[in-house]
Design brief:
Blueprint: H1 4-33, E1 38-42, E2 45-48, H2 49-65, E3 70-73, E4 87-94, H3 96-101, E5 107-114, E6 117-125, E7 130-135, E8 140-142, E9 145-146, E10 159-162, H4 170-182, E11 186-188, H5 193-201, E12 207-213, H6 215-227, E13 231-232, H7 240-243, E14 245-250, H8 255-262
Parallel strand pairs: 3-4, 10-11, 10-12
Antiparallel strand pairs: 1-2, 4-5, 5-6, 6-7, 7-8, 8-9, 12-14, 13-14
Length: 269
């Protein structure tokens, strides 16, 4: 890493926050005036034109400021990085089902990776005007104030979000939900993996588990959890960037208990 690289990552962090805020404001207006149609990519996999429009806006803004950088988005084919460039990983609206149904719980998620590291993560909830942000080695913040993962050390006292997707299958999800609940933990599902993991970083939730989640849904928030003193499983192993992976993110005090309860192949205590 060159001497200029840390300063460049600072620039990327500031740019990501500004772009996420602007993109979030656009999504918020569309959410409130209901000026969109709803379609499905698969069963329970919602899609609106706002997703594509918001991603195109983010991609254009980033390309203008950082033309050498690559881009991976949920709704587009993306572009490779140029020499010395980083790669942005973006979910324009995480929680599209909530957005489509009129539930005000969704966010813009923007991560920046360099090599095998996530360097910058930004998540903006436009309905609450909450900006979660992190830089590798620089801590995690919510609206500028430092945040920390929960001090909980007993899974029976923990609140755990159990992520759902159709890829893992119904039986796997129900089994995971049963194993988590059997520990005495309080399981939930709110429909936005990115916000749930950011809430783990802020101590609002104690953990998040999911059999399979995509990179654009979690990379930004994963960095926040690790920078907030929590535990995150090695999501990028096994080509997680391109193919997704299982994920556990939690307060450090329940790491071993939650890994055991999740019983994910390849994630050991």
């Amino acid at each position: 890493m060159t001497d200029a690289a840390p300063a460049l990552m600072d620039m990327r962090l500031l740019a990501a926050q500004a772009i996420a805020r602007e993109a979030g404001a656009k999504a918020r207006r569309r959410f409130l005036d209901r000026s969109f149609t709803v379609a499905f990519k698969a069963r329970q996999d919602y899609l609106t034109e706002v997703d594509g429009e918001t991603e195109a806006f983010i991609a254009e803004r980033l390309a203008r400021i950082f033309p050498q950088d690559g881009f991976i988005g949920e709704e587009s084919s993306g572009k490779p990085a140029g020499e010395g460039g980083a790669v942005w990983v973006v979910d324009p609206i995480d929680g599209t089902a909530n957005f489509a149904r009129g539930v005000p719980h969704f966010c813009v998620s923007i991560a920046c990776t360099a090599g095998t590291e996530v360097e910058v993560g930004v998540i903006y909830n436009p309905m609450l005007d909450e900006m979660f942000a992190a830089k590798r080695g620089g801590g995690a913040r919510l609206n500028g104030a430092p945040i920390s993962a929960s001090p909980v050390d007993e899974l029976a006292n923990a609140a755990i979000e159990v992520g759902w997707n159709s890829r893992a299958g119904f039986e796997q999800y129900v089994g995971l939900l049963e194993r988590v609940a059997s520990t005495g933990a309080s399981p939930s599902r709110t429909g936005s993996g990115a916000l749930a993991i950011a809430y783990v970083a802020a101590g609002r939730l104690d953990g998040f588990v999911e059999h399979h989640i995509n990179a654009w849904d979690c990379l930004a928030a994963n960095l926040m959890v690790s920078e907030a003193g929590g535990y995150v499983s090695d999501f990028l192993s096994g080509d997680g960037l391109a193919k997704g992976n299982a994920l556990i993110a939690c307060a450090l005090g329940i790491k071993h208990a939650l890994i055991a309860a999740a019983a994910f192949e390849g994630i050991a205590e």
